[in-house]
Amino acid sequence: MTPVVVSIVVLVAMFVIATVLPINLGALGFVAAAGVGVLVVGMSLDDVLAGFPGDLFLILLGLTYLFAVAHQNGTVDLLVRWSMRLVRGHLVAAPWIFFTLSAVFSAIGALFAVAIVAPLAMPFARRYGVDLLLMGMMVVHGSLAGAFSPISVYGTFVAGVVGPTGIPFSPTVLFLAPLVINLVIAAVLFVVLGGRSLAGVRVVHHVPVGGPEGQDTGEDAGEDGGDDAGEQQEAPPVDRAQVLTLIGILALAVGTVAFGLDVGVLSLTIAVVLGILCPAGHREAAGGIAWSTILLVCGVLTYVAVLQEAGTVDYVGQAIVALGVPLIAALLLCYLGGVLSAFASSAGILGVAIPLALPFLQQGAVSAIGLVAALAVASTVVDVSPFSTNGALVLASTPADVDREAFYRRMLVYSGIVVVTGPLLAWALLVLPGWL
């Protein structure tokens, strides 16, 4: 077999193995890169390792470290409490509060925004009678809405892959397209799953939203509750570590967006400074660094570098162009990313789908800006699947007294609908009209 065929077979095998066995796809990527690169393509090991994405490694390390610190010192819980006070305990706003929190955390660099918000949102939904599927999917779609901001992990990753090629690229479109599409999906879900029935219901907004079910609040949720309901329950005071963390997150946003500072270096610097100024709990926070995701992304991209050296990327691009119908080829690329991502990591799929599409994009037959945004949406909107990371986190956050099997089946039905319609929607809105 030719190096191109071998590299494709190995790539398929990687995804199959990572799906059926508990082996990190990135670890498989490093092994495959060394094996295929040295034994099949004829590269030296130094050449293979030259494909390691050091800049992206630093971004992932810095962002996940910083938000592990924020989670450890209670800054995340603080933001949730403030959010519920902002809407004065109106239950109808709760799904949107958690959607917004997840979106904001994701947009400013929290790779696992769902892991932060879902354990707070799901018990809250159970306690106050909000549909669990509605709340869980609002959290996931919120995370996906902010996932491609210019300072997020996904946003910087796509920019790092597409930017150096000279292909037309718009960080603004990449950010706004997933934001608008996921916002629209969330609005439809809110209506279909009974969100409007929550209007007029009030909750005690000083109660910690992540508390155990059955906790005595001193006052039940009910209609027309007084504005001061639950005021006797004092919220914990804001401490020095939380104030400094909020300042650090603001500095990250301003420094990277307004001054173009490196996301990885700045976020790591802020995390280290917080550790120096407020060392309590910092050792535990270091354990929250998303090493498995760092391994996944870096391993996959190292193998992608071998694919490029072997000529596989050019081969696939030429095969797509040879279809002769650019719009159909673009649709197939969207479905390829969407279907694979429903059963694997979106970061890993993006790491493969976008490089494979680059030769096709260079032909100029369809809008490069539109197709990159469509691939981003198609490869992430299916994260509602219980087989993907975000969907699994929601399922794991379901309270113990809930029939988890029945909830799993509801998630499966919804994710099936999204897998079928999501890539088509992204293609129809971002590629077919040709307006980007």
What's the helix count?
20
Q: Helices and strands, in N-to-C order? A: HHHHHHHHHHEEHHHHHHHHHH
Overall SS class: mainly alpha
Strand content: under 5%
Order of neighbouring strands in the sheet with most strands:
1-2
Question: Mean pLDDT, rounded to whole units?
Answer: 82
Radius of gyration: 22 Å
Strand segment tally: 2
User: Unreliable segments (pLDDT under 50, ≥5 consecutive)?
Assistant: 205-232
Residue share in helices? 55-70%
What is the domain tally? 1
Distance between the termini: 40 Å
The coarse overall form would be: globular
Largest sheet: 2 strands, antiparallel
Explain this structure:
The protein has a two-stranded antiparallel sheet with strand order 1-2. The protein has 436 residues and is mostly helical. Residues 205-232 have low confidence and may be disordered. The chain has one domain (3-50, 74-204, 221-238, 290-430). The chain starts with a helix and ends in a 6-residue tail after the last helix. Helix content is 68%, strand content 1%.
Key terms:
single chain, 436 residues, mainly alpha, two-stranded antiparallel sheet, 20 helices, 68% helix, globular, transport, membrane, CitT-rel
Please give the structural blueprint.
Layout: H1 3-20, H2 25-41, H3 45-49, H4 54-72, H5 75-86, H6 94-107, H7 113-128, H8 132-145, H9 153-162, H10 171-192, E1 201-202, E2 222-223, H11 240-257, H12 263-277, H13 282-286, H14 291-310, H15 312-321, H16 326-341, H17 346-362, H18 368-380, H19 389-396, H20 404-430
Antiparallel strand pairs: 1-2
Helix pairs in contact: 1-2, 2-14, 4-9, 4-12, 4-14, 5-6, 6-7, 6-8, 7-8, 8-10, 8-19, 9-17, 10-18, 11-12, 14-17, 15-17, 16-17, 16-18, 16-20, 17-18, 18-20
